[in-house]
Design brief:
Blueprint lengths: L1 E8 L5 H19 L2 E7 L4 H7 L5 H9 L2 E4 L19 H7 L4 E7 L16 E7 L12 E2 L4 E2 L6 H17 L10 E6 L5 H14 L6 E6 H10 L6 E4 L1 H14 L7 E5 L4 E5 L16 H14 L2 H16 L14 H12 L11
Parallel strand pairs: 1-2, 1-3, 3-12, 5-10, 8-9, 8-10
Antiparallel strand pairs: 4-5, 4-11, 6-7, 11-12
Helix pairs in contact: 1-9, 1-11, 5-6, 7-8, 9-10, 10-11
This protein binds 3-isopropylmalic acid and manganese (II) ion.
The site of 3-isopropylmalic acid (IPM) has 5 residues, from loops.
Length: 364
């Protein structure tokens, strides 16, 4: 029996309820597989943790995340829990991503069956992954901005090491995929603003250097403003995209908007050793505790975690179940982005469709 030690962070707002869904799905998958076991260590983190203990994540919890096989994290943060400088105190992005040097933020954007999306496309016709640089760029300035009442500056920093490793990660990711939905070409799109800023010209130059080592992958270039348009007008041509931290934050939410909302979007934060998996959205305090949140982002994050652990058959089992539940309209994502019948009904629909040994029926 393969054993994995997993840290969970239930977070704030809708965090605990969607994590509960993901844990229920993981429990059933383990039962069906019978080949691996996940043992959990719950850790507090986020806004409520900050209010209780004065820190959003303790040093011990950070160490627990570092040494675990992986971390399944729910959304954290509450808009009214802020530091004196006006930024949110409950967010763990800086602590975990920089603290554990998780340089690649992997954000798949995929149109699932039956989802009411604002773009005319069939399921699977939108299927790309944004690789967001996760440790530098504009967000390295988190907490470090300088200025006064008249002016304020945050710095955008790119290092050769930082850009090289994230570009390499993107090309490697493209090798493992089967190309863009429209033409099957393996393609990495470099998204930048190199027509205006030197840091982005530097990013593009290093992207090209790294790309030379991947002659089997097409190099593609878009300025970030034009990328915003193309992600809406012809998303099917994208396979893998790589970009600076802030751009990746913006464009991954834009991508989410094209496939039924952020509730459909999982992500992975990956470094050389440690990793954690989470939805890309926040804690939605307005609907917290009502049982109406879409748990799919968290459930699909759990599937990504299994893939990362090497349990790809189990990860696929979850994605197959979600696909099947949506096809059979057992699971319905409404135009609001929320599942019909609430989170629990959605979870039960997924549980009913989990099957042992069916194997990967399709790419998703
Ligand atoms: C995300 C989130 C975080 C980020 C916030 C909550 C710190 O928006 O993961 O995209 O900006 O990176
Ligand atoms: Mn974001």
């Amino acid at each position: 029996m393969r054993k994995y030690h997993i840290v969970t962070i239930a977070g704030d707002g809708i965090g605990p309820e969607i994590l509960e869904s993901a844990l229920a799905v993981l429990a059933r998958v383990q039962e069906l597989s019978g080949e691996f076991a996940l043992e959990y260590e719950e850790r507090e983190g986020g806004a409520a943790c900050y209010e209780r203990h004065g820190v959003n994540l303790s040093k011990e919890s950070l160490e627990a995340c570092r040494t675990a096989d992986s971390v399944l994290k729910a959304p954290v943060g509450l808009p009214w829990v802020r530091y004196p400088d006006g930024t949110e105190a409950g967010l763990l992005g800086g602590v975990l991503r920089n603290g554990l040097d998780l340089y690649a933020n992997v954000r798949p954007v995929k149109l699932w069956p039956g989802v009411d999306a604002p773009i005319k496309a069939k399921a699977g016709e939108i299927d790309y992954v944004i690789i967001r640089e996760n440790t530098e760029g504009l967000y390295l300035s988190r907490g470090l901005g300088v200025g006064n009442d008249e002016a304020m500056a945050d710095m955008l920093l790119m290092t050769r090491k930082g850009v090289e490793r994230v570009c390499r990660f993107a090309f490697e990711a493209a090798r493992k995929r089967s190309g863009s939905p429209s033409d099957g070409v393996r393609r990495v799109t470099c998204v930048d603003k190199s027509n205006v800023l030197r840091s982005f010209a530097f990013f593009r130059r290093i992207f090209q250097e790294v790309g030379e080592q991947y002659p089997d992958i097409e190099q593609d270039f878009l300025y970030s403003d034009a990328a915003g348009q193309d992600l809406v007008r012809r998303p099917w041509r994208f396979d893998v995209l790589v970009m600076e931290n802030f751009l990746g934050d913006l464009l991954s939410d834009l991508g989410g908007g094209t496939v039924g909302g952020l509730g459909m979007c999982p992500s992975g934060n990956i470094g050389e050793g440690a990793s954690y998996f989470e939805p890309i959205h926040g804690t939605a305090p307005d609907i917290a505790g009502k049982g109406v949140a879409n748990p799919l982002s968290q459930v699909l994050a759990a599937a990504m975690m299994l893939d990362h652990l090497g349990e790809t058959a189990a990860g696929t089992m979850i994605r197959d179940a979600v696909w099947e539940a949506l096809v059979q309209e057992d699971l319905v994502i409404q135009a609001s982005g929320q599942p019909r019948g609430g989170s629990r009904t959605a979870t039960e629909a997924i549980l009913r469709h989990l099957r042992h040994g069916v194997g990967p029926q399709r790419e998703h």
